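Final paragraph of the annual report: two paired records, presented back to back.
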Amino acid sequence: MDPSIPADDATAPLELPGPVVSTGWLAEHRDDPRLVLVDASSVMNRADEAVPGALLLDLDGPFSDPSSELPHTMPSAERLTAAARSLGIRRSSTVVAYDGQGLFAAPRVWWMLRSAGFGRVAVLDGGLPAWVAEGRPTGAHAAPPAEPGDVELVPRAGFFVGADDVARALAAPDATVLDARSAGRFAGTEPEPRPGLRPGHMPGAVNLPYTELQGPDGHLLPLPRLRERIDAVVPEGHGVVTSCGSGITACVLALGAHLAGREDVAVYDGSWSEWGRPGPRPVAGPG
């Protein structure tokens, strides 16, 4: 589900230290013309201030499928490529994504681009809150570049999966389905933010709230603790399918599993927005 991705062919590319970069790394490379910095914050948590040079990346707009009944699902290759090019992303670019909550939506950008064969992409650890807390400069979001990029994105099988794939994973002895929602939503004791969804969770799924991969400062846990947290809920050798409310914070768990060394990882794009609708899919609810 998660094959290795070769680096893009480029002359002297701006290499990343890994799938997560620090605010210090970004400060050092922010003005590099090879870097495309994107703010993936939703309208609900988008701040007026931005890391200087950051472009808005709309996960509910150009980077989603307008024909889907579900929120911000993976778009077609043509739509994804056009959206990325509109932000000036080139085959030779390096992309860093952040969001206004710290670690919420940015991993979705990382996962989407990787799923489409683009390897040089990372998440800013701590996001905008960490940048601001350190007293680093902020400004307005940058305007999209006049010259579009030339990247070619082709979504590949295995990174995003559907409900039938999840049902098979739930029944498989060598797979674990992780649900990134809060413990209350998983148990069905807290209301779902989207109307019409049943309370509860997929029978057999394991709850790992995405916030448990972060420390109180909003940064990812140190790698040894992150690995311990993943290993505590996913047996060695198991494939991992992550889910959440609508496919956003499921990518936080995918990032954590990837950092923990798990190679067989997929994201359920429809997540509870699909599974939790009234219908034949089984739900383990409250009581």
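The closing record of the year follows.
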Amino acid sequence: MNVTVFGATGAIGSLTVAELVDRGHQVTAYARNPQKIPASWGDRVRVVAGEMSDKDAIDSAVAGANAVVSALGPSLDRKATGLPLVAGTGHILAAMKHHGVRRYIGHATPAILDPHEKPTLVTRLIAFMPRTFMPRAYEEITGMSSRIMDSGLDWTIVRFIAPKDTPRQSRVRTGFFGTDKLGFAVSRADIAAFTAAQVDDTTYIGRAPAISN
């Protein structure tokens, strides 16, 4: 399967690219900074360089894809301004519709509720903290997620709270707040593996599962 990955050089994005390649997919990585491209990719990954404001480059990256994965996440820099990822997500979705690509997998936190969830103490807390102390980042993650959920595409949003730079763990919990037992910490490697698996798994279409160890 041909998969285009945005946020491909980030901590989770680069692991996701590796997972997809290991699973036999053909990967196109969209990179804002080509200097961050891992040497280990070699010629196994097609790279398209561009900003999230570059509609033409994004369109080129999506052309020919069967699925799109977004590992994009808001900057936590308090000096950051604007909502570039909201606009960029709009460009991605427009390119997908232009090229007839229906499968989208993205990332968020439990500040975003699954369509069938009711707020819990955990989701309220996870929403309260960024809304109060990082309002721009909160507006960006909610804006991105709203666009995805309203897109009419076959989307899945993978949610997590506290990603860690640890190896894949023996225990991985997935599900929904209020009905399933979920923790806080989760390995970035496990997030990447779960994200990559969603490319050809229809279990969570139109849902926002959470993952933890």
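The radius of gyration is 16 Å. This concludes the annual technical report; the extension proposal builds directly on these records.
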